[in-house]
């Protein structure tokens, strides 16, 4: 896959409950319970090829991205993983578990 398109990722977050936490397509941490909200842990569904540019709403063209990252990407279709990671909320976990 080229560096201009983000890898599709379904990886979990080490030491975190896999039913709650995962990484988005760019490797940013999101909470599976927070969809379509504005906090750093929230995510939105994204069309890899934007819907406005003819992208279809099919599994192969969809991914999750942190809300902030998805808003940055908007209708761009040539945004690299590094750019998407650089625009994310930088979340670091401590040894304390959040009860989310």
From TrEMBL:
Transmembrane segments: none annotated. Residues 1-15 have a biased composition (Low complexity). Residues 31-65 form the HNH domain. It comes from the Eukaryota. Residues 1-20 are annotated as: Disordered. InterPro entries: HNH, HNH_nuc. GO terms for molecular function: endonuclease activity; nucleic acid binding; zinc ion binding. This is HNH domain-containing protein. It comes from Nyssa sinensis. The lineage of its organism: Eukaryota, Viridiplantae, Streptophyta, Embryophyta, Tracheophyta.
């Amino acid at each position: 896959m080229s560096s201009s398109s983000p890898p599709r990722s379904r990886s979990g977050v080490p030491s975190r409950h896999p039913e709650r936490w995962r990484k988005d397509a760019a490797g940013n941490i999101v909470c599976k319970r927070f969809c379509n909200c504005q906090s750093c842990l929230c995510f939105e569904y994204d069309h890899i090829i934007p819907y406005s540019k003819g992208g279809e709403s099919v599994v192969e063209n969809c991914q999750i991205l942190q809300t902030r990252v998805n808003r940055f990407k908007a209708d761009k279709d040539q945004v690299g993983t590094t750019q998407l990671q650089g625009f994310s909320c930088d979340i670091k976990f401590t040894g304390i578990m959040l009860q989310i």
